[in-house]
Amino acid sequence: MKTGIIIPCYNEGKRLNQKAFVSFIQENSDYHLCFVNDGSKDNTLDVLRAMKKAVPNRISIVDVKKNSGKATAVRAGARFLYNLQYISNIGFMDADLSTDFRDFKDLVKTLERDDKLVVFGSRNSGGGGKIERNFLRGLFSKTIKQFILFILGLPIRDTQCGAKVFKKSIVPVVYQDAFLSKWLFDVEIFLRLKKAFGKEQTMQFIVEQPLMRWVHVDDSKLGAKDAVQIPMRLAIIWLSYNVFAFFNTLNTASPADFSLESSSLDLAIAA
């Protein structure tokens, strides 16, 4: 059984470290890389195909035709990997490798050793590692973090870290319905877990693990316009999941009722 890693890509042709990804998957046969091309307008798809050609059986490419944001890309990758019988764990990480493979492998070890449902990296848990980011970004992150803590009602320090891994069994709970937000879907992941399992059980099922290394890479796809809209978008998430929850607009399915076919998605599996 393998761990599938989703790597969402939008216009990453010049930034993707092809050598690092190929070397990792060649040296780790218990992993499978699933690159999701999120409607890129550059040569990202060609770069992904070159990597797949180097290691054809351990790399998959999901080509989402229209750019729809990270949430849609991760969801498409999760739904694709869910149908692969040899996949037992599914996770995602950023294409810029702001979190490195060593830390990601540590998340997987914790998931399997402690028999948890979700293990996610944290840049704020005092792990003593190398965490780099500029001052203004850090200040803004701390402000947003307080708003997120209020929305979740869960003592999670860092919901937005781009490195998470989870048991395949929770895909029906988390990824059946489309996310409300393109970039804040991590918050929705925890809200869906809380709805499915309750607050106490959710905290028993998840682990927030300090990263030894995380570096913010410039040229972020989240622009200034998106950043200033974050409070409003968080408010929409809060209203949808907490205030209007009794309307049952978001349905939680059990694994037994869950069936996904790649052909039902607005994407193509690239050769």
Topology:
Layout: E1 2-9, H1 18-27, E2 31-38, H2 44-54, E3 59-64, H3 70-82, E4 87-92, H4 101-113, E5 118-122, E6 130-132, H5 135-152, E7 164-167, H6 171-175, H7 185-197, H8 199-205, E8 206-210, E9 213-215, H9 224-228, H10 230-243, E10 267-269
Parallel strand pairs: 1-2, 1-4, 2-3, 5-8, 6-9
Antiparallel strand pairs: 3-10, 4-7, 5-7
Explain this structure:
The chain has one domain: Alpha-Beta Complex (Spore Coat Polysaccharide Biosynthesis Protein SpsA, Chain A). It has ten helices and ten strands. The protein has helices at about 20-25, 45-55, 70-80, 100-115, 135-150, 170-175, 185-195, 200-205, 225-230, 230-245, and strands at about 1-10, 30-40, 60-65, 85-90, 120, 130, 165, 205-210, 215, 265-270. The chain is globular. The model is unreliable at about 250-265 (pLDDT under 50).
Keywords:
271 residues, alpha/beta, eight-stranded mixed β-sheet, two-stranded parallel sheet, 10 helices, globular
| CATH fold-level topology | Spore Coat Polysaccharide Biosynthesis Protein SpsA, Chain A
Overall SS class: alpha/beta
The counted number of beta strands is 10
Please state the second-level CATH architecture: Alpha-Beta Complex
Number of discrete helical segments: 10
Distance between the termini: 23 Å
**Number of spatially distinct domains:** 1
What is the CATH first-level class name? Alpha Beta
Rg, rounded, reads: 18 Å
Order of helices and strands: EHEHEHEHEEHEHHHEEHHE
Overall shape: globular
Helix content: 40-55%
Biggest sheet, spatial arrangement of strands:
8-5-7-4-1-2-3-10
Give the low-pLDDT segments: 249-267
